[in-house]
Design goal:
With 161 residues, this protein is mainly α. The protein folds into 2 domains: 79 residues; 62 residues. It is built from 7 helices and no strands.
Length: 161
């Protein structure tokens, strides 16, 4: 039961960024709605005053501001990535990209080695196969393994757009 619970929690942990994005988008939409209401009120007042062309100018300015902002943001993101890797050799940049996969593969390799050598020791010390397997693949080990796998695959499932 504990294994099932930790597997579920680990799987859902991968979706935490999406939940945070949901709340951020909700906040952004609320702000955009307030801005649209203000703009609509402004347009009504301008039309009452006879400035119908002002609406078209404001739409053009708004689109220009949005385009400029998106371009500046993208440029800043690219510049940030360039600054991080500035002066570093290609292998350092590649090594930086391999941190998470290397840790994952290292821990998986360690798990496999511990299990293999534990089984080898158990068999050569006269422990029966069933007792060795119960000891090596215990409920705690199943819980850890299920949590790791569920987290990684949960992250992949929630990460797709």
């Amino acid at each position: 039961m504990f294994t099932l619970l930790t597997t579920l929690v680990s799987f859902l942990t991968g979706g935490v960024p999406k939940v945070l994005d949901f709340f951020q988008n909700r906040s952004d939409n609320k702000h955009e709605l307030a801005m649209a209401q203000l703009q609509f009120t402004q347009q009504l007042e301008l039309q009452k005053a006879g400035f119908s062309l002002q609406k078209d100018l404001e739409e053009i300015k708004y689109d220009e501001i949005q385009t400029t902002t998106a371009g500046v943001e993208r440029t800043a993101l690219y510049q940030h990535d360039i600054e991080i890797g500035k002066g570093a050799s290609t292998w350092v940049i590649n090594l930086r990209a391999m941190v998470r996969p290397a840790i994952t593969f290292g821990l998986f390799g360690l798990l496999v080695l511990v299990e293999i050598f534990g089984f080898y020791y158990a068999v050569h010390s006269g422990t029966s196969y069933n007792d060795a397997m119960k000891s090596l693949w215990s409920t705690d080990m199943q819980t850890v393994w299920a949590s790791i796998v569920a987290f990684w695959f949960g992250t992949q499932a929630f990460g797709k757009k």
